[in-house]
């Protein structure tokens, strides 16, 4: 589906290039008129969902075409897409995708453990991949997205399952703590302790604390902040770096800055600010992260993925093509739960969305570069990510009009929880110490895992936003 659309779009532009047709073909939106924003968002949403074949015969429910080399998208990106769709519904009221979203979030939960670790996707299963699905489930709870039938896993319990399985993976032998990037030991990237894995964990912990009012989650959110900044991944100027390796005790910091990291982080930190009823240390962290984020990622008021969206070339991969949307969605939530940020955030969300819209055609096909004023025909790296980002930008602009902060269990949230969700069986827990008797058996398992992994290594070990380290 993506290939066909990509072809159609470039054919259209070739035609348009000879005259004014391309100009007339732009998506028209008046950002001062919420009904205009809603109709534009609906066109973009429909365009996005054309990339999703999950409910067609013979396709897997819940995933975008992939993972590589079968198709462009890793497993996690569909989780991010359904999160985007939930926000779209929350802000616009359009419930067209309720059923498809519920089916996807429930199927990919991975029965019977229901902790977003389905065996199908083990070869690319990072803590961050799991958490992007967990964050979508958490959002479903926070927005009172319709609950699944009682015999199916519930939104809050799914987020708790992700939290519980990740707490079990926190380990202090290297780097004084933190989560590794990958979950299975055999995956390339297992020795990388990176920011995205840890800030996703912090994000879910903070939101669980606020939703359930259970301090245990808050302690973990704070511990993760302390670790992340202690190890130097967040520096004193609030730059947010990518990560380091356990072989170097995480001192070999890869200082590349991708927006997904501060986006997920500032969301979690703002939730902690709200949960603590405005505690000064969390206020300072929100303010610092916001200041640095605006300066770094919104030069001229329009979002740029600076590490790979270069003036003269485009080096962003499929994953990175979806990052702008996470930033816009995160900032909208920050504006709700940390009201002191509203003036700064709404100003930049508006100017950046204006840029996003200027990259869209009238059929809702949007580009990746938002600061050019036209559709950039960047179709090589997973157009679904660009569609998600444009949709996120448009819907997030309605945040103040919607004026509904994330629900909690005390303020109308209806999702059912299970504090022990995901505890059994934790198939990817760190291996227990090996006794002599176990060794032979473990060796066989390892050989089998290795044999099946090596076949996939060509694409699995290519770090997805680790850059060239
Ligand atoms: C796992 O793969 C099988 C075979 O393609 C498919 O039927 C099933 O729906 C998949 N499960 C998940 C959770 O993706
Ligand atoms: C590893 O780094 C942590 C701080 O992040 C430090 O506390 C610990 O002593 C270091 N360990 C080694 C072996 O250098
Ligand atoms: C949510 O509140 C209800 C009562 O209003 C209570 O029965 C339930 O245990 C609470 N759930 C959580 C996760 O705290
Ligand atoms: C961030 O803080 C610096 C130093 O105080 C200031 O010069 C800059 O204008 C701030 N940026 C934004 C976007 O507020
Ligand atoms: C927490 O969020 C709610 C909902 O948006 C908001 O009304 C409240 O003012 C926030 N609390 C603080 C301390 O900012
Ligand atoms: C709070 O969360 C922790 C961590 O999951 C759990 O062990 C504990 O039972 C929860 N407490 C309550 C009162 O639900």
From TrEMBL:
GO molecular function list: mannan endo-1,6-alpha-mannosidase activity
GO BP term (any one): carbohydrate catabolic process
UniProt xrefs under InterPro entries: 6-hairpin_glycosidase_sf, Glyco_hydro_76, Mannan-1_6-alpha_mannosidase
Presence of keyword Nucleus: no
EC code: 3.2.1.101
Reaction catalysed by this enzyme: Random hydrolysis of (1->6)-alpha-D-mannosidic linkages in unbranched (1->6)-mannans
Keywords of this entry: Glycoprotein, Glycosidase, Hydrolase, Membrane, Signal
GO terms under cellular component: endomembrane system
Superkingdom in the source lineage: Eukaryota
Residues of the signal peptide: 1-22
Subcellular location, record wording: Endomembrane system
Family label: Belongs to the glycosyl hydrolase 76 family.
Name this polypeptide is given: Mannan endo-1,6-alpha-mannosidase
Source species: Schizothecium vesticola
Lineage: Eukaryota, Fungi, Dikarya, Ascomycota, Pezizomycotina
């Amino acid at each position: 589906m993506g290939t066909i659309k990509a072809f159609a779009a470039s054919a259209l532009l070739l035609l348009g290039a000879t005259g004014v047709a391309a100009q007339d073909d732009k998506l028209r939106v008046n950002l001062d008129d919420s009904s205009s924003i809603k109709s534009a968002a609906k066109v973009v949403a429909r365009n996005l969902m054309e990339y999703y074949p999950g409910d067609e015969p013979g396709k897997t429910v819940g995933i975008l075409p992939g993972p590589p080399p079968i198709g462009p998208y890793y497993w996690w990106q569909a989780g991010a897409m359904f999160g985007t769709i939930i926000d779209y519904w929350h802000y616009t009221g359009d419930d067209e995708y309720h059923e498809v979203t519920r089916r996807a979030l429930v199927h990919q939960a991975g029965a019977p453990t229901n902790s977003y670790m389905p065996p199908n996707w083990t070869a690319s299963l990072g803590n961050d991949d799991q958490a992007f699905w967990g964050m979508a489930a958490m959002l479903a709870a926070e927005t009172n997205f319709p609950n699944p039938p009682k015999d199916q896993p519930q939104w809050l319990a799914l987020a708790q399952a992700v939290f519980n399985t990740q707490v079990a993976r926190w380990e202090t032998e290297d780097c004084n703590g933190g989560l590794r990037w990958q979950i299975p030991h055999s995956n390339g990237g297992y020795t990388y302790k990176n920011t995205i894995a840890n800030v996703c964990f912090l994000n879910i912990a903070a939101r669980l604390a606020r939703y359930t009012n259970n301090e245990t989650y808050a302690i973990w959110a704070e511990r993760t902040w302390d670790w992340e900044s202690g190890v130097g991944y967040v520096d004193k100027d609030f730059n947010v770096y990518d990560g380091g390796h356990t072989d170097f005790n995480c001192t070999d910091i890869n200082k590349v800055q991708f927006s997904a990291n501060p986006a997920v982080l500032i969301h979690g930190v703002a939730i902690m600010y709200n949960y603590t009823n405005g505690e000064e240390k969390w206020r300072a962290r929100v303010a610092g992260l916001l200041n640095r984020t605006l300066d770094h990622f919104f030069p001229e008021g329009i979002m740029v993925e600076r590490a790979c969206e270069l003036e003269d070339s485009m080096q962003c991969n499929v994953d990175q093509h979806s990052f702008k949307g996470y930033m816009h969605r995160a900032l909208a939530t920050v504006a709700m739960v940390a009201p002191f940020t509203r003036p700064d955030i709404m100003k930049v969300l508006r100017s950046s969305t204006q840029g996003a819209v200027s990259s869209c055609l009238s059929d809702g096909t949007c580009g990746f570069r938002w600061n050019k004023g036209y559709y950039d025909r960047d179709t090589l790296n997973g157009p679904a990510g660009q569609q998600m980002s444009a949709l996120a930008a448009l819907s997030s602009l309605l945040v103040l009009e919607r004026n509904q902060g994330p629900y909690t269990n005390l303020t109308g949230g209806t999702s059912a929880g299970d504090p022990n969700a995901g505890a059994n069986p934790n198939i990817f827990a760190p291996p227990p110490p090996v006794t002599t008797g176990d060794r032979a058996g473990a060796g066989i398992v390892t050989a089998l895992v290795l044999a099946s992994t090596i076949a996939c290594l060509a694409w699995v070990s290519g770090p997805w936003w680790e850059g060239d380290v």
